[in-house]
Amino acid sequence: MSFTYNNTNYTTSYTPLDYINCEVIDTDINDIINYSNVQFTGKFNQTTGEEIQQNKIFGNLDNLKFKYVPETTTTPKLYLQGSIHKYNNDGLHNYNDFDKDALNESLSKLHFNTGILPKNLRLKGIECGYNFNTPCPVETALNHTLYWGKKPFKHFQYGIGKESGTSKETLSFYAKGAQHRIDECLGRIELKIKDWSPYRLNYNLNTLEDLIKFDQTIFINKLLNAWNSVIFINPDLKPEHLLKYSSSYFWEHELGTTKNSSKRKYHVDKLKKLNRACADDLYGQITNSLKNKIQELNLKSTINKTCVLTGIDISMQRSESHLLSHTGLNHLEFNDPEKYLFIKCKFLTANWSNTTKAEQHKRIAHNIRAAYIYKEKNKVDNQLPIF
Asked: 277, CA 20 to 30 Å: which among 73, 184, 232, 338?
């Protein structure tokens, strides 16, 4: 699948996830509450183990929010909400790129801390978006971003962002750099899908695992089409056009009350044409920057990367990695248990077999690194990757 822009065909398969809204399924909820690294408050006293009766109990793991509902008509429920992107940054921010490697790293980290796999997360909604550089300070561009279709944009995030939408979807554009006091030209556009039922019914996307394996071009196209529906006023328009098309009265009253949709389309198309005719086509430049970022991340996500010693896929590790690390080991354990056991037997000595999994993975990674250094130091040229 692909999208086309300026007569260029872009093949894509990945879009950066941010917020996810899920129900935890097909796993022992009590194990997560009692034995995971999630800090729950309300249900159990973590010191004494005493049970506290409440209708809802909440937990937190690096800004991922857990909600446990013990009193239901059938069985207890556990929900997870939050930014899987921020989780990759210890819950602090999401202003960097979130490529496929970072997603895999987050999922491995989640599995290690909670035992939860992507197949255990039944989707209720998602948010996808991109951070990219704009040709001017983002707050300047925000002042000229008026409507998404017929819905007006409204300020949020203390005035450094705007969002528009319905109970099913929202489109947001905000100054990500200003939010964190870094680059004033670092912007973010994201689409939140609140109603997941159409994707469950039409594409059989029930769990996060289903979504990860799915060609995500439809979500990229959906975000691009949403941005393409934005009514944006170039500040360099002629005064008479700027006065007319900047008026909310014009869009909401003169056109908003008419049943003639072709009249509104005429003015939307005319405004786009006027914007493009400006020497400084700000909307076009923002769109191009967004497109370039989409292509950049997708090209990066298609590059296969393997451990130089073992030959194991390490595409889920950080871009600078070249040897299998704890992140890759976590990923390998639940994706290819047979290969994981082989690596464990080869690189973990018996005196470490009764230690924690974290210590074992640390030791395996250490031994792989030591073996690689020995190979390079002694010029063992005939040693091929294990896989």
From this structure: 184
- DSSP state letter for 228: H
H-helix segments, the chain: 29-35, 84-88, 100-114, 138-142, 176-179, 197-203, 208-213, 217-228, 239-245, 248-249, 261-277, 282-301, 326-335, 337-347, 357-377
Q: Give the pair of three-digit tokens for residue 210.
A: 């289903």
Query: Which segment, 98-102, 119-123, 300-304, is predicted with the most confidence on average?
Result: 119-123
CB-CB contact of 136 with 192 (8 Å):
no
Q: Which residues pair with 24 in a beta bridge?
A: 121
Q: Minimal CA–CA distance to 135: which of 330, 343, 280?
A: 280
Of 119, 139, 92, 109, give the one whose Cα is nearest residue 282. 139
Helix H or strand E encompassing 39: strand 39-41
Q: Which residue has the higher pLDDT, 48 or 127?
A: 127
Residue 43 φ/ψ, nearest 5 degrees: -80, -50
Cβ atoms of residues 108 and 331 within 8 Å = yes
